[in-house]
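Record 1 of the preview.
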Amino acid sequence: MRVSALTIGVIGLALSFLPEEILSHYGAQSGWGGEFVLQATGAAYVGFAVMNWMARDILIGGIYSRPLAMGNFVHFVVVMITLLKVLLDGHVRSDVVIAFVVFAVFAAWFGFVAFTHPIQPKPNRTSAARSERADRVG
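->
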């Protein structure tokens, strides 16, 4: 959750504050419409990053965090498929390939998290024994 929050947070901040630069990097004409779309997308990414950051210490994939896992999974899969389409259309650039790999890794990870049962970490014997002794004493 921390890595995904930081990754999409950086993307969101870049989209929010550097829309003209991003458009010119990809050869698109700068204008209020394109800039607005990038800034609005950036705002959504920052919001998603905050949500992931706030959920960084909870068990993801359980009944209460399932919507969070599914939202992340769908997001990363859709962007990954879109990037794959861009690559298959012949726009093979290093930044697009890197983005595809990053989104594919997150899609696979959140797919695993969303569609498998979460496993609670088992307490080790030492801490369990200490806890049991404390219960008897206290």
